[in-house]
Queue: 3 jobs
Job 1
Amino acid sequence: LAIVEIRLPDEGATLDFGAKLARALTGSEPEQVLLFSGDLGAGKTTLVRGLVSALPGGDEARVSSPSFNIMNMYPTDPETAHFDLYRLEGFPADDSLLEHMQDDRSLVLVEWAQFLQKEDWPEEYLLLEWQPAESGRTILLTAKGKKAKQTLLALA
Ligand code: ADP
Ligand code: MG
């Protein structure tokens, strides 16, 4: 397990950090799972927007919160699968959702990861947790597994 704290003073910093994360991912193995844990208005979708737009092919992607359809796909290289588990609150995810989240040929981004039941968490992931902050945003990054640790190293 490796942990890093990031300060994001404003929305621009969140978008820039998303782009930095995209470069860190494409520099190693982008087919991994990123779990976003933060409340409504934390900036999860903003970060996804900054990230996806900086991926190969991502400048054309229209990123929005997939709250109603649960998953959006973006035509990046590799493909990005964007989940929003808000509607899961308190309920277990069904098997087809979990199967989609384990797609190892895609970059998988999961908003509201805190609503995943413990036993449904992937083996390896990069977790981004929004912390309470007086101003702007603070996120804590936790890497579990080799790929996620590489990504975290590339960010430092
Ligand atoms: P979520 O997907 O977590 O519900 P959104 O990304 O949709 O959040 O919206 C977050 C709101 O917070 C937006 O209005 C955005 O401009 C703002 N925001 C994003 N990052 C920051 C930041 N680092 N500091 C202050 N405001 C931010
Ligand atoms: Mg959102």
Job 2
Amino acid sequence: MRIGIVCYPTFGGSGVVATELGKELALKGHKVHFITYSQPARLDVFNENLFYHEVYIPTYPLFQYPPYELALASKMVDIVRFEKLDVLHVHYAIPHASAAYMAKQILRTKGINIPIITTLHGTDITLVGKDASFEPVVTFSINQSDGVTAVSDSLRAETYDFFQIEKDIEVIPNFIDLEKFKRQKKEHFRMAITPNNEKLLVHTSNFRGVKRVEDVIRIFAKVREKVPSKLLLVGDGPERPKMEKLCRELQICQDVRFLGKLEAVEEVLSIADLFLMPSEKESFGLAALEAMSCEVPVISTNAGGIPELNINGVTGFASPVGAVDDMVQNALYVLDDEHLPQFKANALNRAKDFDIKKIVPLYEAFYQRVIAEQ
Ligand code: GMT
């Protein structure tokens, strides 16, 4: 197939899923065309089947807000026509689904019928999409898509609950490359971080409010009172300055390291004992899956789709949002040397259910079905 993929090019979950999907499809022989405003962060390989088309947004003094959606729609029209695409797959509804709708209408006037598939990722539904400023456009553009997928049952249910959706939504969960996210021997690194054999806790996120990084720090501070331990924080975002301040107030700075945005997260996960995800909202929890794939159990909330991934009492524990003390108790239980090896093994086993080799064929079959229905 000749497939167009539209996504955010950043390290965010939806962009990562879109890019890894495109890379795997290219390995399987499909021609994959990425259309976005800069080179996707994970599009770091050369493959004869991979193409990147940059959306150029002209500026003009009149524009307080440059009209990205229009430039994107025009680019989609151009690439669908020139590259003779079979399907356009857009990741994250805002504004990709409505831009795709516009491109489809323009292409129709030229005698081309391009099927549009929209994948809902999370905050496009659970947070941003619900805002009255966007809701009518989100509802309309989902209903106008030829195929719609969501990354968890929970996200699918929430979409039907809040929006007037007439379309079937297929759940295709996120996936993981078990070869890339594999526990590696990094003894020297572990020795440098935990010289006295402390336990190592890790959190990765974009440090936005929904991630509740404050809970990460408070959980860690309490765990550290009982078990000698260290915390590594990967990622960056608006909450980081407040979190650095909190560490100073709690006087735990010597045991906490802010690593910033890292390309090779799997290297950090390779030395971790426990992953913390106390999110308020999380449609799937790709960062937790990356940890599990590196044999790291997860202490999380039971928000959104997380319990579909992190099985309570098996791969870790899932507590109500904000239940810091509960998460501390669970963390101490998992970190106990009598329990830890089993939780690690269970985490990896569960990750295998989301093997990229199992999930990408679901997208291929979905593309074929939607194309055949046109
Ligand atoms: O929250 C993020 O990290 C970014 C966001 C995105 O769309 O870029 O992530 C969402 O999509 C990921 C991939 O499908 C999911 O794993 C995340 O759970 C989801 N985030 C939220 O729902 C808050």
Job 3
Amino acid sequence: TTVSVSATASHAIPTSLFGMMFEDISVSAHSGDGGLYGELLQNRAFQQVTPNTTDALSAWTPVGGSSITVIADPSPLSSALPNSLALTIPANSAGQFGFANEGYWGINVQAGTSYTASLYYRVASSIPSGKGSAPPTLTIALQSASGTRLASHSVSLETGGWTHVSAVLTPTRTPASTANLFTVTVSGVPKQGLDVNFAMLSLFPPTFKGRANGMRKDIAETLFEVRPAFFRFPGGNNLEGQTPATRWQWRNTVGPLTERPGRVGDWGYVNTDGLGLLEYLYWCEDMEMEPFMAVWDGYSLDGESVTGAALDPYIAEAIEQIQFVIGDPETSEPAALRASLGRKEPFALKYVEIGNEDFIGNAPGTVASRWNQIVTNLSTTFPQLQFMATSDTGSPVLTPTPQTYDIHVYQTPDWFTTNSFFYDTFARNGMTFFEGEYAAISSNSSNIFGTPDQGRFLWPTVAGSAGEAAFMTGFERNADIVFAASYAPLLGHVNDSQWTPNLVGFDAGNVFKSTSFYVQKLFSLNKGDEYLPSTLPSVNGTLHWSVTRWTSTSELVIKISNIDTSPASLTFVLPFKNVESEGTVQLLTGAATASNTPEEPDLIVPTTGKVKTGETFEYSAPAMSVSVITFGAK
Ligand code: AHR
């Protein structure tokens, strides 16, 4: 195959091209709570649980034969957190009594690392006072699986109302596994017994960039390797709610953690909302990403639509959500709230997504009217913002005409290769596109969303990642209209079986980088800033490429996806006189069905080598591979 490259760029590669999509997803994966969000305790504040049930105690177990129950506290810590854990220690008990939290399938405890533990308690029974009666002692500790205490902090119990205890726990040794416990115990219990209620318990490790209430460092650092240009949040389905009443609501996610009620998320578990709107915005700044923020648009997953006058309060809510992000504290209440939380300056925001997947939400035929009502209102208040539609591009016709559509696709590896030219036929009429979710998730084209035994991938495969790379060369060729794209979902705990595959896997102590992660990273770090047209690949072929260049350094970037089972030979013919004689090739290759897994996390990693380059040069793209060749050419 001969590939002749043009000297003249056809279009710029937008800096926003490769970014990330995030939502709190998957019941046993916990991508936000238990994943990206740094909190180590599961069910820390008994949010949205039914008191006096076993489920309400999820992740908590009694210690020392004590009795624990989640109760609707008659005198709760806050109205947002009505439930407490009631510890009952019977009369005439001696020793340690309390409870333990197992974290999210473990707690990673490392020697020399400082963990911030905190809790609120309220002594619900009386403690005898007077000579000879020392107050009971409350001890917060980290404990290994075998019961060894790794670090602890003790205080004397005080009576009165709710008391806050905060302590830094710094273990001096690293236990053998992450099957550790966070324990809270009481000793020196008076002989008539003791009742103590606990609320809002927390254990935080050091976070990414030291941000308070921030993100888990190893996951964040992995994502930062990709240098994502944008971050789409808070969903995905998790924006929508199973019903309008259970939609994601920004106000419930801001302010002190004790004022956040949490929410029954759309993926079968309670979201603490500790990872709230302000945390998302700081995270975007810390990661140097542009926020792509969604607002609720009157459609929930049960198929309900809210239209007409009934939609107005939700539009007001969306306006307030945006004001919280970019408003002026002098003139806007949500912006004043932001300032009161320590952030006077507005955040940078350009893109606002209207709902999620309205191509499903049009079933009741309400998309056009909802879009018109919402966007007419929002663009009057915020003429500087760009609103993204989530319905099908052609149908129904939306007015005002969307400047941007968010398009999603989950398919087979082959589909992605065959559809590398997906955007080539789109009209050039000013409309732009965000490929907001895409991933090769199954080998079974007639049952894409089926189970693993029906072909669903547990982890990205080499064939899937190479297929995605072929599709991504199409983004670059069409980057005059495709300005952004993100693989989805981003994160999954290795316990996950609800949604697979995910770009990055993790457990309590490890982060696993998939083959698709490496493809995202290769494309993002080597995107170039202008596109050089070249001989077009065969539309239905197995070999796809794109050529871009960094103008400031005259570095040429050639990306090649070969999903054939044999190597493919390419001859590049360049229009430049000064071409370096040697280039660098970054190569990802392996068996079509091979994956990086927790058992073999580094089975397939990119290698870096040298390749002979020149005005004309040949390159053999290995079977089932993604290659990125870079060299100077001007
Ligand atoms: O990424 C998983 C889900 O797929 C998202 O929540 C939704 O937008 C899509 O259907």
